[in-house]
Design goal:
- With 282 residues, the chain is α/β, with parallel strands linked by helices.
- It has one domain: Rossmann fold (3-Layer(aba) Sandwich), CATH 3.40.50.
- It is 40% helix and 18% strand.
- Strands 1-2-4-3-5-6-7-8 form an eight-stranded mixed beta sheet, sandwiched between helices.
- The longest helix has 14 residues.
Length: 282
């Protein structure tokens, strides 16, 4: 059942479900052709990719899951919500649907979650589309580590679980173009918000640092996969990491969106599609 608060003009899809560790995973599976798997972060869900899915699904099979605790998926009490466990559920979805030669698109926490699959199965990943994200430990990056420690505290937990901090503060601050990120759009992130799941993400910025280290240590396994980096350069958190990503890939196209913040698929979907279509057809 699609909740009544979902604007069906914006999100005209009929999500399906898959039983995974912890609960029922909701996912969009639209179109036919070569598969594109779109992996969201926090505090977003497959709604983030709605415009990309609508435009690409006539030519590609677009698969976009909602991680447990996000969007239309279950919110199991007592489940971990750690990114490494979300990554296992993503792998199960790809394997259950028997998706082959996939294009993997990732954003925010979807970076480590989705790229974990690419690192484990580089032979099954044909292309990579990478929006503002990371895949390494922040333990030595003080600009991230000190606010991450604050967010992992009791105060941070209260803000996330009781005050919708992930959307009302973090996402609102990270988006640069408020003309496209309207109040109506914001409601689609507020209404399904699970404060605990988003707080776990904040906690695991440092809590999962050992797992991030294992991902970064194996980056050579994806170095030969053709990649496009589509980067919002007004992102207060991730804009500065673009040079680091450039060095990972042997074949990489870089798109810098000067007036875009943290969420290119939300803020600049039409512009993203111009570059994506060319990249996918190459």
């Amino acid at each position: 059942m699609i909740p009544p608060w979902v604007d069906r003009r914006e999100y005209p899809f009929e999500p399906q479900g898959l039983d995974v560790e912890g609960g029922r995973l909701s996912y969009v599976d639209a179109g036919e052709g070569d598969p594109i798997v779109m992996v969201h972060g926090t505090p977003t869900w497959s709604f983030l990719y709605r415009r990309l899915i609508r435009e690409l699904s006539p030519r590609y099979r677009c698969v976009a899951p909602d991680h447990l605790g996000f969007g239309l998926s279950d919110r199991p009490a007592g489940w971990s919500y750690r990114p490494e466990d979300q990554a296992q559920n993503l792998a199960r979805l790809i394997e259950t649907l028997k998706l082959k030669d996939i294009t993997l698109a990732v954003h925010d926490f979807g970076g480590p979650i989705g790229l974990a699959y690419a690192l484990d199965h580089p032979e099954n990943v044909r292309r990579l589309v990478i929006f503002n994200t990371w895949m390494w430990s922040f333990a030595r990056d003080w600009s991230v580590a000190w606010p991450a420690r604050l967010l992992a505290s009791r105060l941070g937990r209260h803000l996330y679980e009781r005050r919708a901090f992930a959307v009302r503060v973090m996402l609102r601050y990270a988006v640069a173009d408020r003309r496209r990120y309207t109040r109506e759009v914001e409601q689609h992130y507020l209404r399904p918000l699970d404060g605990h799941a988003t707080w776990v993400c904040a906690r695991e910025l440092l809590g999962s640092r050992a797992w991030y280290d294992t991902l970064w240590a194996r980056r050579d396994r994806i170095a030969r996969i053709p990649a496009i980096l589509i980067w919002g350069m007004k992102d207060p958190a991730f804009a500065r990491y673009l040079p680091r990503w450039r060095q990972v890939f042997e074949q990489v196209e870089v798109v810098q969106l000067a007036d875009c913040g943290h969420a290119p698929p939300e803020e600049r979907a039409p512009e993203c599609l111009l570059f994506l279509n060319r990249f996918l057809e190459r």
